[in-house]
Structures are given as C-alpha cells and as structure tokens.
Amino acid sequence: MLVTRSEYTDTDNAILPIVSAQEANIDHDRLHRNAASFRSLGMRSVVLVKDGALVWEWHDLGEDKVEPLFSCTKSVLSLLIGIASDEGLIRGMEEFASEWIEPFARAADPRIHQITVGHLLTMTSGLEWADFDKPYRAMRKSEDWVAYSAGVPMLHDPGKVFCYNSGGSHLLSSILSQATGHSAMQYATTRLFEPLAIRHAAWSSNNGINEGGTGLHLGSRDLAKLGLLCMRGGYLNGTPIVSTAWLEQTTKSHHKALKHYEPRIYGEYGGHWWVDEGDEASGPFYFAYGHGGQYLIVAPKLDAVIVIRKKPSGRGSGIISRDLFHHSIVPSLTPV
C-alpha cells in the first residue's frame, strides 16, 4: 500500500513527514511482494520510518486503526516516568518505591524498602512473580491491583534477579500518578500525546490508576511517532520532550533477561525496553514488545523505526513478526 496524505494534517507532517519510496531509497518492490503474505501471517499493520520520514505502510483493513499495544504499553510508561523525572517530580531511577507505595512503606522485610524505581523498570525488584507473568490474571481479578502487586513476598535482594513482572509496571503507574497528580493517561496527553499530535488514545485503569503493564491503545502511525522521538534523543523538532540521558539509561541493557529464550522474540532488558545486539545488517536495536508479536523497533544504524502489529496467537508466534523484521524489512531498508 502506498503512503498517502489523506488522513494527515499539517501538524502530522511537521512531526512525521511522508516521502516516497524512491526518495527514501528503499526497496519498495520487495516490500510490495512480501506484503502479499502479510494477511496469511496474521499481520495487522506494518509502518516504516526511515531517516525521519514515513516511507511505507501496510494495514490489513486498508487504514490505520487504534488497537491495543499489549505490553508495548510498558515502554510508553517508561517515557512518562522519564518526563516526570526530568521535571523533578521523581528522583529518577534511584527513587525508593516505598516513598509512594504504602504497602512497601509498612513492610517488615527490610529488602522491600530498598526497591527503587530503577528496580521496577528493569524488572529486578526481587518480588515473587511466577515466570511469564502468570500472576497477572490474578492481579486483574483482585479489587486493588496496587495492593495485590505490592503484597507479594520478596524472593531475592533487589537488583539481583530478572523476573518479568507486569505488577511492578502497575506500581510504576501508581507512582507516576501520585508524583504528578494526574493519571498516566492525563499526564501522557499533555506531555507526550498532544506534542506529537496523537489524538486518539485509550488506556484501561483500576481505581483511577492506568494499567502499567498493558492496556494502552494507539494507532500504528502514532506508535511510530513515539519511536522517532526516541530515535531523535527525546527531541521533537528541536524541543526536548524527554531527556536524552533518560533514554540512554533505559534503552541500554541492565540484565541479560531472556536473551537466550527460544524462539528469539525477546532479548536483554533495559528500563521497560528490550535490547538486542542485532546482526550485521540491522545493527544493535531496542524495542517495545507486546503479546503475540507486537513490535516497536528503534534501529539507530538504519536510522529506522519499524512498527509491526500482529493478531495475537500465542507467545511463540511473536517469532513471525521478528522474522519479518530481519528477513523482509531490514533488507528492504538496505538495498544493494
């Protein structure tokens, strides 16, 4: 599908201009051929940004739609925590979570008092949380998600062991709300979405706290805008939105995490971003990942942002999206 300007305003164009495949020097023919199989692979959207411009997109319904990000939500939350830190509302990665989470403040285990925002972001809090987020459903069935997530026992000293924990993400959303006086959605609207001309968003919540680990709904083009913001070091047309230092800190590896998981859909873990060393063609990249194969990939070597959204069909099916990136999209962005 050719990129068109039909749904774009002047503001959109100023943030994410559209250029032709020829101008962008990408292999449009390869992309067009490969797109013939996208529906059979379960793809919903593919959006490519190269050198700061929207150069190619495909949508299964013919147009961009607002759809759930699943756990890509976590990376957007990381940006919001960074903005709050830049504003001095949170003392960065070193902020003690017990300053904001009441069950932590009254906990008998002294290790809980050592849990920081950084530990929650890097998923090294030490809290008991079964592999692959198994307690997540129980958390959602509880009346108070913050109380549930903060009430689990400690298994390890903070900073020692990686454990994927969406409950910790929800604690971060609670911290953000208390620190800013606004829900994550309200804060995102004024600090992130409006500056990037993101006009359509929705975010699930519990007791006024937006769900930290998932629940955000955005369009694919808007997700690409967030990736471009990261690519540009947190700047939007010369105006800082989130500090470069925060992005550098959260998009680098803090733990090997699931680097060796098969199939290779994850990677090492940063601050609510996944990190991968890539290969010779892609170079190192970092990414947001959502259940079933949702990717927002920022690839600095290619100066490219790639959004891949797929119909969820099980954890391992994410390899379909990952293979699409490596074997179809990267070669199209680096034509011989």
What does this structure look like?
- With 336 residues, the chain is α+β, with helices and mostly antiparallel strands.
- The protein has helices at 10-15, 21-24, 28-35, 73-86, 102-105, 117-121, 136-141, 145-150, 166-180, 184-193, 220-231, 244-250, 318-333; strands at residues 43-50, 53-59, 67-68, 202-203, 205-206, 209-210, 216-218, 235-236, 239-240, 268-269, 274-276, 285-290, 294-299, 304-310.
- The chain has 13 helices and 14 strands.
- The protein has a seven-stranded antiparallel β-sheet, sandwiched between helices. Strands 3-7-4 form a three-stranded antiparallel β-sheet.
- β5 and β6 form a beta hairpin.
From the structure above, extract its key features:
three-stranded antiparallel β-sheet, 14 strands, seven-stranded antiparallel β-sheet, 336 residues, alpha+beta
Instruction: Give the DSSP E fraction (strand runs of 2 or more residues).
Output: 15-25%
State the distance separating the first and last CA atoms. 23 Å
Number of helices: 13
Poorly predicted runs are 1-5
Strands in their spatial order, largest beta sheet: 2-1-14-13-12-11-10
Structural class: alpha+beta
Q: What's the order of the H and E elements?
A: HHHEEEHHHHHHHEEEEHEEHEEEEEH
Estimated helix fraction:
25-40%
Average pLDDT confidence is 95
Q: Please summarize the sheet with the most strands.
A: 7 strands, antiparallel
Give the number of DSSP strands.
14
* Rg over CA atoms: 19 Å
Shape designation:
globular
